[in-house]
Amino acid sequence: MAEHTSSSITIEAAPADVMGVIADFARYPDWTGEVKEAEVLKTDDQGRAEQVRLVMDAGAIKDDQTLAYTWTGENEVSWTLVKSQMLRSLDGSYVLKPTGPATTEVTYLLTVDVKIPMLGMIKRKAEKVIIDRALAGLKKRVEQGGPAGA
What we know:
It is a single chain. By secondary structure, the chain is α+β, with helices and mostly antiparallel strands. The protein is 24% helix and 48% strand. The chain has helices at residues 15-22, 28-31, 120-143; strands spanning 5-11, 35-43, 49-58, 61-72, 76-83, 87-100, 103-114. A seven-stranded antiparallel β-sheet has the order 1-7-6-5-4-3-2. A hairpin with a 2-residue loop joins strand 3 (49-58) and strand 4 (61-72). Helix 1 crosses helix 3 (120-143). The protein is globular. Mean pLDDT is 86; it is low at 146-150.
């Protein structure tokens, strides 16, 4: 398996509140920065997204991708690439761990393989930037009001 990049952050909210924001794909353009459009294409029998189309604009990298999501219990979601213009593969996950009555440690794990050649060191740095921005945006979104939005 390819090398992955991961990072964690502590959010002042219960895991259910954090997962509520993660699962609210329609609002991703409000807080993620890189996601310009998000459309749930398919849901499971519990109403959770199984396939999501994301239109990304991360400066030099613009992409239209479809991801397949797998929900494991209440505190973990992972995804894998279904199709993309720029990426060969993409695997990621959010794992939530309660660390107090209203505190959650969120770990984001990401592995990306682009279709264009890229040095491993540069690719991992890009993954780290993506992860850190996503975690910072998630923390801000959850702590400022969650899915209802601020």
